[in-house]
Amino acid sequence: MTKRTFSAKGARATECLGLIHTDVCGPMSIQARGGYEYFITFTDDYSRFGYVYLMRHKSDAFDMFKAFKAEVENQLEKHIKILRSDRGGEYLSGEFQQYLIDNGIVSQFSAPGTPQQNGVAERRNRTLLDMVRSMLSYSTLPISFWGYALQTAIYILNDVPSKSVPKTPHELWTGRKPSLQHLRIFGCPAHVLKGKTEKMESRSETCIFVGSRIVLNEMSGDTIPREVAQPNPIVSSDPTQDQQPTIPRRSGRVRTQPERYIGLGESVENLPDDDDPYTYKEAMEDVDSRHWQKAMQSEIESMFDNKVWSLVDLPKGIKPIGCKWVYKRKRGMDGKVETFKARLVAKGYTQKEGIDYEETFSPVAMLKSIRILLSIAASLDLEIWQMDVKTAFLNGSLDESIYMMQPEGFIEKGQVDKVCKLQKSIYGLKQASRSWNIRFDQAVKGFGFIQNPDEPCVYKRIKGDKLVFLILYVDDILLIGNDVGVLTSVKEWLAKQFDMKDLGEASFILGIQVIRDRKRTIALSQASYIDKILSRFSMQDSKKGMLPFRHGIKLSKEQVPKNEHEEQFMSRVPYASAVGSLMYAMLCTRPDICFAVGIVSRFQSKPGPDHWTAVKHIFKYLKRTRDNMLVYSGGDLVPVGYTDSDFQSDSDSRKSTSGAVFTIGGGAVIWRSIKQSCIADSTMEAEYVAACEAAKEAVWLRQFLIDLEVVPSANKQITIYCDNSGAVANSKEPRSHKRGKHIERKYHLLREIVQRGDVTITKIASAENLADPFTKALPQKSFDGHLENMGLRDMTHLL
């Protein structure tokens, strides 16, 4: 039995909005800029005029329809009569159907397995995708620009003739013939007028055209900019292109980009990833406004539950501080939005010291401490659980009298002139983190935990053979222990003291994915974070790099921009932001880029094109090695250190670079690459200075392990390997007065550390020194071998 052939003819609408065809397309394999994975189309049956909206979630279809309905009914002064769609769940929801009934709109669904009954919408989506592929292919822009190409495609379709209608959709929809004077080829070179310029300076800037972002003003027929929540599509091209002469402006106005969006990646300007709202107004106009409203309501309820403030009249002579909402879409490891977070933050920058606050210092757990404890957990097969303190800063008490304006959107009726007298600390206050830390510290010590004297945010509780470690990082808590019952009791106690969220076994800590196979192996991955920063700086489609820093490349402060064109280009490069993003990856799990990041971070005050090229090369390397993980394979808990130094490698100051790395349980836990503070006169002196810095780190590491009371070898000397015989000899006793008489006295601390038995300095061959990659660029084979010995390897098979 076969289906009957469908007739191509059907009853057509006789006026605009008589029948609207709609369909959702997605998810796309690559997100559009702004995190969009879907799009929904609305096509008028009578005119074939179409609308398209980008969506982050399929469930946003209802909100998009309401936005579409409000716009078209207001513009045409008519009402939608029939909505035709397939039987997708987004259309069948009770909320959507009830809305159609309330507004007198007839809902028509195609029969299951018969897309021909919704052929107009299906065909429209296919046509749009064909056009998008063609435009992206011609333009050579990254695929992530498909959202801009899609909006350009629907604009073109509305202005060109169609066999389905006697006139253009635009003319049938508006009653006026469309003007095509402003149309330009998608992806073609464009010129944006600069602001104030010198008389002989070029007045335009070369860019890539990705859409004029205009709609019709039905009252005047003029083209005007359309304000949308997506980032502006004007993007700059690579500065290597020759500067083009100034050309006249076209009739269609071009919007310049907001200041916060400026920043270059591989060949286009950086655009924000998440497009989170910046203000309360933006949140209320966002497509996810109902989620933001719910998140704000939850935050306010938490404030009331904790009795954070009371409404009072403002005392005379007192100026209240302001407050604002901060919005964030929290994503999971797969990049999908999991929760919408709205946090009320006080504008603490308006506080005055001595009046509104006294002390502000508050400790946080060091990343190296977390890695050490995770290495111990892998070796001893300990449980690792995670908890989150909800609105942690609200638990802190205030000693000062602070008055704050009522939060926007939640001003009490009839009490508009009153202000909030804070009774507890909130986010944004300068003393907030300190108040919370003091409150938490007092609570856990009262429950029997002992604070580590060398790491104030690490606590331990040992009773017999049962142990629990607690790590606090602002409002994130890690519990590590060998007894499930004891860990459960600690969690229950914490839940009684504070408003907690139990996250179960630790899987995602500070942007780091924690993977274990329970065979005494823990792997730390930042693949999701690397994907995010690659996208943020438009490097997701770049070529893959083999090494983070090319052998033979020399960078100096003299490589500043050489001409006006380079100056203009570098003024838009987000150099410091890119280096900071790379540095976080390096500090957490990627010792392999430590040397490269250390080099490029020296030029943040005045970077040039060569420096930016070096930064991009690190991104390319991370793209190739995104799946590399820092692995602790449960080996012996014996700390081992390595130290190394180059000699006068900094061409500007002639100072040397020190490098050091310490491993425990088969993986690196501490590493550093830093320019020395003095000029070394010999390789022995440079290595001696580097060894002294490594020895000081070893003293802290040894004492930290002793205080944990679970590492049997903690009381033994820590062996630090060095590949310079002179430095090794001088670490034990004075040698070679001629070569060492001028060494600064503070570095002779190394001998005292060695003599009292904290560490021992031992000779090792240069080829076996794990600190070598922290002082220089190495050949591929040597570099990969050192990474393997540091525990950095591809472990995707654990996922």
Automatic annotation (TrEMBL):
This is Integrase catalytic domain-containing protein. PANTHER family: RNA-DIRECTED DNA POLYMERASE, TRANSPOSASE, PUTATIVE-RELATED. It comes from Acer negundo. Residues 233-246 have a biased composition (Polar residues). Residues 229-255 are annotated as: Disordered. Residues 11-177 form the Integrase catalytic domain. Keywords: Hydrolase, Metal-binding. GO terms for biological process: DNA integration. One of its GO terms (molecular function) is nucleic acid binding.
